[in-house]
Amino acid sequence: MERKFSTFSIILIVIGVFVAYMAFPPINIDFLGWWGIFIGFGIYLTGLVLGIVAFFKKEKGFMKYISLLSISLGVLFITFLYAIVGSV
Question: How many structural domains compose the chain?
Fold first, then answer.
């Protein structure tokens, strides 16, 4: 069975972004507190690493490019967090 790193990458990126953003309004689900931001960002970074692995293993398909486009979401998240907290 061949591993599809790009599929796992997309799944982890979506889960990580959801967990990281849910501490902020309008979602504001607060069962993880501030730790949810770091846990979500860690899941996001894991998905990003899997996307890079899929790109270097030259997997077939378009999913690897979509997972690499999510780098902009990470930059947006860092900027958003810096604007709210004042430092990262």
Answer: 1
- The secondary structure of residue 87, as a DSSP letter, is -
Backbone angles phi, psi at 3, to 5 degrees: -80, 140
Q: How many Cα atoms sit within 13 Å of 53 on the Cβ side? A: 14
The residue type at 23: A
The 10s digit of each residue's pLDDT in 65-88 is 787 788 887 888 788 778 777 765
Alpha carbon of residue 80 to chain centroid: 14
Per the prediction, the chain carries an average pLDDT of 80
Could you tell me where the DSSP H helices lie in the chain? 5-21, 35-56, 63-69, 71-85
Domain that holds residue 53: 5-85
Q: Is 27 exposed, middle or buried (0-12, 13-18, 19+ CB in 10 A)?
A: exposed
Distance from C-alpha of 11 to C-alpha of 47, rounded to nearest angstrom: 7
